[in-house]
Amino acid sequence: MNPTRRVLVTVAGVLLVGLVTLWRKDLLSAWMIGAAAVLFVLCFDAIASLLQTRSLEAQRTASDTLSLGAWHNVLLTIHNTGSGHEKIDVIDHFPVSFNSDATITSMKLPPETAKTLNYRVQPTERGEHDFANIQIRRYSPWGFWTTRQDLGEPHLARVFPNFTAISKYALRGADSLQAMAATHVKQRRGEGLDFHQLREYRVGDTFRQIDWKASARSQKLISKEFQEERDQQVIFLLDSGRRMLARDGDLSHFDHVLNTVMLLGYIALRQGDAVGYMTCEPDPRWLPATKGRSTISTLSRHLFDMQPRPEATDYWHAATELVRRQRRRALVILVTNVRDEDSQDLHKAIGLLRQRHLLVVASLTENAIAETLDKPVTTFDEALHFAATQDYVTRRRTSRTRISRRGVYMHDTDCESLPGVLTDQYMAIKRAGIL
What we know:
This protein is an alpha+beta fold.
């Protein structure tokens, strides 16, 4: 039980009046009677508050799955099941890492009535997060005291990468897929070909293409039309080390990477490819490449609670693990943040991966780099900062050039451009048929 402001004001008033008795001794008896009356009222109100029956019920309505960075509605329903009026304050305990527009709400509830409250939350971290009980601050009959009640049930919410935030790139990918479907895919010697359809014989068709049974039935030559094999595999190799802890805007670099994985995985699955992933860590998470509509949901469940570690990335260990687990040739997309000090370990890993797979490397850059280079230089300290940043950019460019020369598709990009860059690269590889 806690006193309200009314108690403090009342007690302060009684004490101030008591100061008058220092000069007016004849008022001392009256003041003592008044003080006793006030004390009696406070005690009576406190006892009445403790004897109040528990006639309140509360219920929270919120989604079990939330999207990172998106606003979601939460509905609270407070019901007075008793026969008396209730004055209460409602405080909902949402996860501390969430942004919210919720406030402490005061209300009066007549008997047998219910009221609803609505507020919004914005998750800022992926993973599992707990909504605690709904806290009700209940006022005593005369409003001098409050008692706390925790009502409702705790609620577990899972925060997933926000796929809708990058849906514009999915539309771009869908348009590219339609364009690819409308073009003739070049057939190349020695590569697997999938049967596409039957059609009438054309000049230049090989004897291997003629379907003799279909030709006999139709009394004319019928050829088989093939298309380039589409059952390919895409593996995302995700850097989950300390550099992915960097933040641009509301999201970490790792969150931007996961959003891109969800997008490109969706596009690749629509194209008929299988999608999987592996993380760069001592005990890596691994999802073998699979196809089907349910794969994107499986991918989301695997990744939603993953967080980067404050440790250096061991590229060689990641490469050896991936080569051991992924036997079939695949398109491997490594998303990381390349620095010049990574040269030896990273180049060894690239050499190993290229022996069996087609490799794309995306290196994330921080927005602060571009902001520093665009900022006017007016002081000596700013000049030193600018020169150091320019040297850093030059060394990154040198590392990128060295990687590109090894036959790797290399991209240096910021987080905002990452989905579009990788989507365009994937579509270019599919159009060229080089996987």
